[in-house]
C-alpha cells in the first residue's frame, strides 16, 4: 500500500498542466519556424538573392507608416524598366521584404499626406539588409480670395513661393467659391503669396505661420476708403490687441504694394462715455495704428490721422451689435 502511494505521488509530480502543454507546443513550433528560416536563408544565399527589408517612418514622430508605397530599383536600370519592388508597406511592421540579387539599388517612399522621402542608394550584399525611409507630413493650408469691402469671392491669379523664391503653386481662384489649398512644408521658414486681378490692387503676404494666415483679401482699385476689419483694441483703451495682427498686416501689405499711396487713418467710437473722452480715444487709436505701420517700416509721412469720436455713426447706437459696427478704423486714400 505504501509503495503504491509513493509511485502515484511520483507520477503526479511529472504530470504537465494545460499551460505547460501549451508552452511546450509553442516552443516546438518556434523551433520549427526557426529551422525553416535557416533553411530559407541558406537557399537565398546559395541562389545569390539575399533578403531585403525596407521600412517607412514618420520623420516628425518616428512612428512606423503602414500603407506607404515603396519603390526599389537597380541603380543602372533604364527609367522605363519595371521596378524591382513597387508595393505598399504592410499594416503590422510598416515594411516590405523581397529577395533580390546582390547589387546597387535605390529606394524611395511616397504616401498621401506626406512629402516623398529622400531617395536612398545602398549596396545590397548581406542577407536581411535593412533600409529605413523617412517621410515628413504635409501641412495643408486652405484659404479664400475675397474682396476687402464686400467679402465676396474674387477671381485672381495666385502664386505661392518658398523662401528660396521657387514656385510651389500657381492657380486661378474662381469668382464663385475662391477656396484654394496649398501643401506647405513647415520646415520651410516662410512662404510668400502673390495675387493679382484686373480690377484689384496686387496682394502680397508672407506666410510664416499657416494657422495665422487670414487669406487673400483684395482691395478694389476704384476704392476711395475702406474699413480696416478685424482690428481690436483693449476696452476703453488705445492698446491694440495681438488678435489684430492679420488686419495690421493687411494694411501694411496694401501700403507696400502701393509705395506712393498716402492715407488718412480715421478713428470712430460708439456713444458710450463723454464726447471728449471718445474724441481722445479715437485719436489715440489712430496713433497706435500709425505707429504699428511705422514699426513695420512704412514712412510715417505717408500717413495722416483723424479722430472723429462718436460724431459719425453708421447705424444708431441702440444696441451692442450696432455699437460694435460704429467702433471702427477707416482708411481713406489721399
- Based on secondary structure, the structural category is alpha+beta
CATH homologous superfamily heading of the largest domain:
OmpA-like domain
Number of helices: 5
Q: Looking at CATH, which topology of the largest domain would you report?
A: 60s Ribosomal Protein L30, Chain: A
- Mean of all residue-level pLDDT scores: 85
**The CATH class of the largest domain:** Alpha Beta
Unreliably modeled segments: 5-12
Describe this structure in words.
The chain has 334 residues and is of the alpha+beta class. The protein folds into 3 domains: 40-137, Immunoglobulins (Immunoglobulin-like); 138-220, Immunoglobulin-like, CATH 2.60.40; 224-334, OmpA-like domain (60s Ribosomal Protein L30, Chain: A). Helices cover 25% and strands 32% of the residues. It contains 5 helices and 19 strands. The protein has helices at residues 2-13, 18-47, 245-257, 275-295, 320-326, and strands spanning 51-58, 69-74, 85-88, 95-99, 103-110, 114-115, 120-124, 129-137, 139-147, 157-162, 167-172, 179-184, 191-196, 203-207, 216-218, 225-227, 263-268, 303-307, 328-333. The strands form 5 sheets. It has a 4-stranded mixed sheet with strand order 4-1-8-6, with no helix packed on it. The protein has a 4-stranded antiparallel sheet with strand order 3-2-5-7, with no helix packed on it. α4 links the parallel β17 (263-268) and β18 (303-307). The longest helix is centred in the N-terminal third of the chain and has 30 residues, at 18-47.
